[in-house]
Amino acid sequence: MGGFSNFWENEILDHLFGKGSYTPPAIHAGLSTADPGDDGSGLSEPSGNGYARVQTSSSDWNAASGGQLDNANDITFPEATGSWGTITHFALFDAASGANMLAHGSLSESKAIGSGDTAKFAAGDLDVSLD
Length: 131
Description:
mainly beta; 7-stranded mixed sheet
């Protein structure tokens, strides 16, 4: 299960308390071979070999219940053309590259991604909660 990053927690709090405006971004799912941490400093995304973050839309997510939500549809990454390493974590971002990390979490099972593999979060498998 994943939780909000420091960045997103601050954005939401500022918005709720009238300290700033906030427009929900398109959310991009990414993968990491290490724990990004709440500040994103440990993020280790694959590079090259066909890796790219996957943009989602609001219809790709179920409505929140009990302080958490999950993906309503499969989130499928491009086919790997080489090794991406062993994926241990996911992260959600507000853009396709660079940008702000919004949330992150560990996978229930690590997965080595090699040439010809396609990483995917099946519907209901990517959980995000407020922490």
